[in-house]
Amino acid sequence: MTTSTVAEKKPSISPGFIAWLGFVGILLLIGLVSAVMVFWKGLVITNMSDTIPWGLWITIDLSAIALGAGAFTLSAIVYIFKIERFRPILRLAVLVGFIGYTSALLTLVMDIGRPDRFYHPWIYWNVHSVLWEITWCITIYLSILILEFLPVIAEASFFDRWPWVRKAAAILHKTAAPLAIIGLGISLLHQSSLGAAYGIVRSRAVWFKPSMPIMFIVSAIAVGPALTVAIAYVLEWVTGKMTVPHNVLRTIVRFSGVALLVYGYIKMWDFLASTYYGNTEAVTDSLALLNQLTPYNFTFWVFEVLLGILVPAVLFLTPRFNRNPANVVLGSFLAVLGIIVNRWNVTVSGLFVPLEYSPGILYNPAPVNYFPNLVEWGVAIGILGYMLLLLTLGVKYLPLFKEEHGHT
Q1: pTM for the whole thing?
Q2: Which long-range contacts (CB under 8 A, 24 or more apart) does 169-174 make?
Q3: What is the dihedral sign for C-alpha 375, 377, 380, 385?
Q4: Which terminal residue of the chain, N or C, has fewer Cβ atoms less than 10 Å from its own Cβ?
């Protein structure tokens, strides 16, 4: 049986769609009000402090970048390895990647305190800083995503009156392969560097280890494509039309399942190396303090390992489960939850442990707890609204799924 994908005819606006936009608008309004309060009064109105300068917003930033990894992964598969059967999902993957990276940048605008200086890393170089390198890589890769997606935007019916836009887009599309190669290198660099930003901080015993960059990049490669598959299935349920052949989606989730097992294997060896084989007094004291102040042990084993790795891997790799789209969507959302909890544990939990050494300070600060306040949650809600708005408009008005596919 053949089912057409998202139709290329002029989209209709139903009452349900208007209600959905109203809901998204409420999320955006909450975010806008919260952002104005932060810009007006400064970061002092948040629950962050000099002791814990990274909180909910950095967790969103790291999670959004990881969840956008489906773009460079699937672009590499199609343009570098020439596996054409994955092309039907590529446009959706690039859109999800663009949403993820722009959401991360919006979050950083709120978090850096002086957003008017966002351009400083490009002018004032600090080649010894991992964060400087990450800033360069993220902005370069976002530019690559924009170039990759411009030909799709040019195919929208809005540009029917300007043929030259389509011709320019066709020329730009010819650069897709080299852009994919460059994007793959840049993505691998900054995904791993995000972990390295923690792994080189010697004063934080729970962070200081060489496995952090590896775990960051493997987890992103595992979960990013799975999220794209889940979105494809959800869009199919909402529109009643097939978006991507199911055999392609099942292949992608099997890849994600294997990648999750690799990630879990590395995580277990990292855990054993830190707490058993190479255990130090600083690590033992840090973990004891974390478990005293936070549910670190519970969230690690339940949300990161069990729900974030093992359950999704079973749902993705077992044929009786991955043939049911509902199981795949459930597994994808659990894997996404695992990534978010991991980024929270890495970012915030490490800061709960006081520094053992700080230049110019003769004493160690007392342990400080942290939980986001309403303003921080308000900004987070606004970022979620932004993500949903871009996804909604992209699916509604852009030709993301052009071909016809049969149920397989």
Answers
A1: 0.88
A2: 172/147
A3: negative
A4: N
Q: What whole-number distance in Å separates Cα of residue 134 and Cα of residue 125?
A: 12
Residue 406's pLDDT band, with cuts at 50, 70 and 90, is: very low
6 pLDDT higher than 70: no
DSSP of 8-32? -SPPP--HHHHHHHHHHHHHHHHHH
Count of H helices and E strands in the chain?
Answer: 17, 2
The secondary structure of 121-168 as a DSSP string is HHHS--TT-HHHHHHHHHHHHHHHHHHHHHHHHHTSGGGGG-HHHHHH
Determine contact, residues 31/385, Cβ cutoff 8 Å.
yes
Give, rounded to a whole angstrom, the gap between the first and last alpha carbons of the chain. Answer: 9
* Residue 276's CATH number: 1.20.1630.10
Cα–Cα distance measured from residue 175 to residue 378, given in angstroms and rounded to the nearest whole number: 40
- The predicted pLDDT at position 24 comes to 96
Number of domains in the chain: 1
Spatial distance between the Cα atoms of 32 and 110, rounded to a whole number of angstroms:
11
